[in-house]
Amino acid sequence: MSTIADLKKGQKAIIGEMNAQEIPLKLLEMGCLPGNQVELIQIAPFRDPLYLNINDTFLSIRKETAKLINVNLIEDE
Amino acid sequence: MSKQINVALVGNPNTGKTSVFNTLTGLNQKVGNYPGITVDKKEAVIKLSRNLKAHTLDLPGTYSLNATSLDENVVIELLLNKNDKDYPDVVVVVSDIENLKRNLLLFTQIKDLGLPTILAINMADRMDRKGIQLDIDLLEKRLHTKVNLISARKNKGFDDLKQSIIDYQKISLVPCLDASEIDTAYFESLKKAYPRQDLYKLWLVITQDVNFGKTNRNKIAAQNEFKPKSNSEIKRLQQKETIKRYQFINATLKETLTKDLALATGLRAKIDRILIHKVWGYVIFLAILFLIFQTIYDWSTYPMDFIDESFLLFSEFVKQNFPAGMLSDLISEGIIPGIGGIVIFVPQIAFLFLFIAILEETGYMSRVVFLMDRVMRKFGMSGKSVVPLVSGTACAIPAVMAARNIESWKERLVTILVVPFTTCSARLPVYLIIISLVIPDERWLGVFNYQGITLMLLYLLGFGTAVASGWLASKMLKVDFKTYFVVEMPNYKLPIFKNVVYTVVEKTKSFVFGAGKIILAISIILWVLASYGPTDEFSNADEIVKSSTDLSSITEEELETEISSYKLKHSYIGYAGRAIEPAVTPLGYDWKIGIAIISSFAAREVFVGTLATIYSVGNEDEQTIKTRMAAETNPILGGPLFTFASGISLLLFYAFAMQCMSTLAIVKRETGTWKWPLIQLFGMSGFAYVVALIAFQILK
Ligand SMILES: Nc1nc2c(ncn2[C@@H]2O[C@H](COP(=O)(O)OP(=O)(O)OP(=O)(O)O)[C@@H](O)[C@H]2O)c(=O)[nH]1
Ligand SMILES: [Mg+2]
Q1: Which pLDDT value is given to residue B214?
Q2: Going by DSSP bridges, is the β-strand pair B448-449/A50-54 parallel, antiparallel, or unpaired?
Q3: Same domain, B539 and B407
Q4: Disulfide check for B604: which of B328, B426, B558, B588 has CB 3.0–4.6 Å away?
Q5: B585-620 as b/e, with b when 16 or more CB fall inside 10 Å?
Q6: Last-in-domain residue among B136, B153, B170
Q7: Overall domain count for chain B
Q8: CB B13 within 8 A of CB B63
Q9: pLDDT tens figures, B564-622
Q10: B327 and B203 part of one domain
């Protein structure tokens, strides 16, 4: 099982279970929920933070948070 | 009799609430593309129809009713407190057509509070371009409310929106989600314990400790028939609620919204590729900053000179046309130069705010936050700290407030603590006059002006110290808060011209009136203290000077100067100044500079005006003050008072010292205790004193 932090630039994945206690609620409210799609748009210089498209919302989070969110890769169409 | 209702504009950050507010009311305020910009309450009364007025409130953006930050809390406090005088009769949820799914989360929560809630879908002008279609009728049916498509940019749909507000009593109060679905057993027991309360409201109160009316968390816990849940269980339930709401929203939008994916333009990706490039991103950011500072200085000289001249003329006009006497002196020597000393900075402040407003409106600020987060974290701050640090070059007060949207308390505190080191516009006049006195007006390598380089170095010194002390503070602070960081990356947008203009006007106005009041007070006090003295030596100055000098060897004018400087020495301010002289002599200053420094603690920009008043130069003409300053001699060392050594010492003192009461007051308000502002006051000023001392002793 990989996490958002393992995604490569341009890769898409479906959000799986996440470590519920640790994840900020705000992230869930912005659409980061199990079953939604996430795409890694860009990684900042120095490899942190990450620029994501989650469920049509563009946002950026730090790697430490990204590590808490499990995903299932979507194989390239 | 016409009736007045309360209307609240609520919505996610960056959906255009402020733009809608501006369009509805015509009264304007800060609008930004950087999520969470509006921090203060903005209100206006508008006329909806012949006998209905609406008191309209623009609120800060929030993603949901589960507050995580200060400005979000404002919204919840208002919506849960029926006794608040602003408690809305109707809520307008402003949402962005492109982010409707996420926006609806907040909408459903507010609707479930049992308030009439209108959904205003903004940015309708972008629907065609993005290939978005929406079945409004069906959406209204599913959400049990009135839905209005509007565009603040194109000023469309506002008549319908106003009509919906007028008809607010017709809106159904049916909730979107039955609260007890979140956890049946728990909500059943809750209902039993508080049969008369609205269930969803109760739940919100439990989740976030908001005081409303008589029910609060402690009281709920105290009821014995009701078993409270642990914090982690509550958190789990909140997540469950969020998921349930999204299920409802997804189902609703599936029926009502279609997007033509082929039309989704790649503009964002194209611009992002350059603006957050690992090399170009930083180069562009630095270039933009450089350009901003450069243009501020270049463009502001002309209006500044003009203002300077005008105040001089005004002052002379008063002197000549008012009956001579105390009042005329007070106005022409105290008040007018004092006010002139602030108005002269209006052009620079306006330009600075103009650029900052544009950066925020376009969506660029979020990219800078993204780029800088990793770097800033090394220094105990967040990428979001860049915004306060940049706007701190205008004034530390809005900058301290801009730190509000930093999620982690520790990073926010560090940012607040170090922001006053950035070179704010109030330091500028001090820098300019000292530099012109002690740094040669020559060119290095024939290109770079030494004076310009010094100014640039002072700015870098400010940023550098802010960052370095951030590192220090984060090492010393033992605040252990979980940190996280979420930034929305908004679409790139062309700024709405009206928004930018009103922002600039409003910010500048509040700067002038805010600082103006202090300066006015100080200049009056100073003038009084310098014009009166406690002893006979002051009142008999004329005779004393005349009898002690050889009248034939000096001109009338020189005698006048002698008398006034003798008077000054024996005025109240003179005695005070000489009391502090021992403290400032090691730094290379005389008592007059000492007084100017003390009065600078009200506001730094008072420095020049104070010296002007003390040197009994009746106006603010920098040339005159400058010549006068250049002619001052050091009472102990002899030679000119303003040398390279004492000048540098003074520059360093102003770079580091915490000399702004308003900033201290804001820091107290934002951190809730006097501890932090006091640390700033003594820490920064002590450091400034030591550095200035060392610099003078080495250089002299
Ligand atoms: N295309 C388009 N852009 C708009 C419209 N209304 C606002 N904007 C832009 O959207 C951005 C955000 O506008 P604001 O009015 O500051 O949004 P807000 O909801 O008050 O933001 P916060 O106070 O930060 O929560 C700005 O860049 C506006 O120029 C609109 O109708 N159409
Ligand atoms: Mg706003």
Answers
A1: 41
A2: unpaired
A3: no
A4: B426
A5: bebbbbbbbbbbbbbbbbbbbbbbbbbbbbbbbbbb
A6: B170
A7: 4
A8: yes
A9: 778 778 888 888 888 988 999 999 998 888 888 887 876 787 787 677 666 644 333 44
A10: no
Flag whether B272 is in a domain. no
Residue with tokens 């004329």: B542
Q: Is residue B27 part of a domain?
A: yes
The residues, any chain, with a CB within 8 Å of residue B287's CB and separated by 6 or more, are none
Continuous H helices in B56-151: 70-80, 100-111, 127-130, 136-143
The token pair that represents B74 in the structure block: 């404002």
Same domain, B225 and B156: no
Class for the domain spanning A2-73:
mainly beta
- Please report how the helices B70-80 and B199-208 are oriented relative to each other, as an axis angle in degrees rounded to 10: 150
Same domain for B436 and B311, yes or no, is yes
CB-CB neighbors (< 8 A) of B33 in chain A = none
Domain hosting B293: range is 280-485+493-499
Show the CA angle centred on residue B515, arms to residues B514 and B519, nearest 5°: 130
Shortest distance between the Cα of B216 and any Cα of chain A, in A, equals 22
Domain ranges in chain A?
2-73
Place of tokens 């919100």: B204
B597 and B454, same domain (yes or no) = no
Residue B117 CB contacts under 8 Å (≥ 6 apart), including other chains: B90, B91, B92, B93, B107, B110, B111, B145, B171
pTM for the model stands at: 0.79
Nearest to B333 by CA among B568, B82, B163: B568
User: For residue B502, is pLDDT > 50?
Assistant: yes
Same domain? B693 vs B561: yes
Answer yes or no: do B542 and B686 share one domain: yes
pLDDT top residue among B228 and B595: B595
Q: Is B157 in the pocket of ligand 1 (CB under 6 A)?
A: no
- Residues of B near A (Cβ–Cβ under 8 Å) read 63-64, 66, 68, 98-99, 101-102, 105, 232, 235-236, 238-239, 242-243, 246, 268-269, 272, 276, 278, 281-282, 366, 369-371, 373-375, 383, 407, 484-491
Q: In this structure, what are the phi and psi dihedrals at residue B657, rounded to the nearest 5 degrees?
A: -70, 145
Residue nearest to atom 10 of ligand 1 (CA): B16
Give me the residue label for tokens 């930093």. Answer: B406
Same domain, B138 and B191: no
Shortest Cα–Cα distance, B487 to chain A (Å): 5
Whether B640 and B583 have beta carbons less than 8 Å apart is answered as no
Tell me the C-alpha distance between B284 and B279, whole Å.
9
Per CB-CB distance under 8 Å, the chain B contacts of A27 are: 484, 486
Q: Measure Cα distances from B695 to B450, B587, B588, B646, B649 in Å.
A: 19, 8, 10, 8, 6
Q: Which residue among B122, B151, B170 closes a domain?
A: B170
B162: in domain: yes
Which residue would you say has higher pLDDT here, B521 or B571?
B571
